[in-house]
Amino acid sequence: MALAGGTAHARTTERARQKAAAEAERAGLQQKLTALKRDISKTESAKDDAADTLAESEQAISDANRSLRDLTAEQAATNDRLARLSVEHDRLVVTVEQQKQQLSRLLRQQYVAGNEDRIKLLLSGDNPNRINRDLQMLAYVSQAQARLLDALRANLKAVEANQAEAQNAKDELAEIAEEELQQKALLEQEKGRRAALLATLSKRLVAQRKEVGNVERDEQRMAGLVDKLSRLIKEQAEAAAAEQRRQQELAAARAAKAKADAEAKAQALAKARAAEAEARAERERLAKAGKSGAGKVQPAPVKPPVKLEPIDADEPKVAQQPKPEPKPEPAAKPADIALAPAAPAGAFEAMKGQLRPPVAGKLAAKFGAKRGDGPSWKGVFIRATEGADIHAIAGGRVVFAEWLRGFGNLIIVDHGGQYMSIYGNNQSLLKRAGDAVKAGDAIASAGNSGGNEESGLYFELRHQGRPFDPAGWVRF
Predict the structure, then answer these.
(1) Contacts of 214 (CB under 8 A, 6+ apart)
(2) What does the alpha-carbon distance between residue 399 and residue 442 come to, in Å, rounded to a whole number?
(3) Which residues form the M23ase beta-sheet core domain (predicted)?
(4) Residue 442 DSSP SS3
(5) Which among 205, 271, 336, 398 has most CB atoms closer than 10 A?
């Protein structure tokens, strides 16, 4: 059994290849966001924030929870695929068995009748019409046998392909189960580590949360992040639009060139046909003149036939070498345009007053309310049970999904038209930067990361970088 398991894991599955490709695509985007976050941290004056000690542990918990959720969904999809493959395999096996039995009956009948049927018919001296009809019937039978053999071969190949795909799905399930065990062990380890850190840091966290300067720095940090993200989104949207225009211009140039080439070839073909018709007419005139015997007729000079290249020939003419077409520039990589808005401008504004709350819970702090002696709230805080699903309030694209001082595990969704929704203090982030989301998609789970006292969600709405009251937009 151990040897079989080792063989399964030694084989590279399609899932492993796709996972490696997806991670490679995300690498460029992640580098940009890490650099952006580092740039914001350079201006920090508070370097000894107790919440920073929790950062690594809270990020690890978030990653483990997201991986477990993804693995569960992947496992369900793979089980469904395996079930479909099993049904298809059973159907193919029944079909192959029926075809084998049919072929066996045909071969047995042919053996009993003998292999000299055609010779017997030809030497029988019977009516030729009847012999011809019987030979045609034998030919039809042979064709039917050949078709049956072809269908049997095709179904046998389909059975082999089905078995290979089913084995690949089983290998993928083994990979998923192993990864789940690893992630669960990591999750439990990190939860224990965070609990120990919280017990050690609890007094420092309470004291630092009450400092007005810390709250103000948190707000400045958020404003700086949103501004930089907005600029990055704008730059990448412009780059995506420029790339699209360039591709359209290249396509138009290729189409124009292809049309010109086709017209030139058509003209050359028409000239060649005209010359050939003229030569044929001249030959016919000479032939008629020769038959009539009306003296020696001086033939008119015949133009040499035009040598026409094949219409689909790709080789360039020696006389006129066309200039090599410049190689098109490589298209923009997915990582370079991953933050381009996923929703059209105006779509978010149209949903004003109709948006559902991001999480089920009690509104504990409202926009504009004072935070004790500190600044007023720039968003709302919704008290919710730990692990409760946080939903995207509208469709868009995730532009930030990382831990940020003061907000813990933070996720930001761009909805187009310079509107953003912000979700902080999450236990886990279920989406990554660059992911497109629909309204109602689970994007995070509620928690108290970042040193927050209560479990819940800190929620903001921003337009052009400035926060505004979500109450007029979301039906709390």
Answers:
(1) 46, 49, 208, 406
(2) 16
(3) 377-470
(4) strand
(5) 398
DSSP 206-255: HHHHH-HHHHHHHHHHHHHHHHHHHHHHHHHHHHHHHHHHHHHHHHHHHH
CATH topology of domain 341-472: Glucose Permease (Domain IIA) (2.70.70)
390 pLDDT band (50/70/90 cuts)? Answer: very high
Structure tokens at 287: 């032939």
pLDDT tens, residue by residue, 107-144: 777 666 655 555 555 556 566 666 566 556 666 767 87
**Residue 155: CB partners within 8 Å, gap ≥ 6?**
92, 95, 96, 99
Distance CA 310, CA 293 (A): 41
Q: What angle do CA 248, 257, 321 make, to 5 degrees?
A: 135
The β-bridge relationship of strands 396-404 and 362-365 is unpaired
Kindly list the distances between the CA atom of residue 239 and the CA atoms of 336, 337, 345, in Å, as whole numbers in the listed order. Answer: 8, 7, 17
Of 284, 275, 269, 272, residue with least CA distance to 302? 275
Q: What is the dihedral of CA 393, 396, 400, 405, to 10 degrees?
A: -20
And the tokens for 50?
A: 């107790």
| Helix 50-113 with 128-210: angle, nearest 10 deg | 170
Instruction: Give the whole-angstrom CA distance, residue 340 versus residue 232.
Output: 9
**Spatial contact of 362 and 374, defined as CB atoms under 8 Å apart:** no
Residue pair 222/468 in contact (Cβ under 8 Å)? The answer is no
Listed range (115-119, 155-159, 290-294) with the worst mean pLDDT: 115-119
Q: Which amino acid is at 349?
A: E
C-alpha span between 415 and 357 (Å, rounded): 16
- Cα–Cα dist 238/244, whole Å: 10
Give the mean model confidence (pLDDT) for residues 306-330. 47
**Helix residue ranges, H only, 114-211:** 117-123, 128-210
Q: How far apart are CA 100 and CA 149, in angstroms?
A: 9
Helical (H) or strand (E) element with 54: helix 50-113
Q: What is the number of helices (H) and of strands (E) in the chain? A: 6, 10
**112 and 154 Cβ atoms separated by less than 8 Å:** no
Q: Are 187 and 19 in contact (CB under 8 A)?
A: no
Fold classification of 51-210 is Helix Hairpins (1.10.287)
Q: Domain extents for the chain?
A: 51-210, 341-472
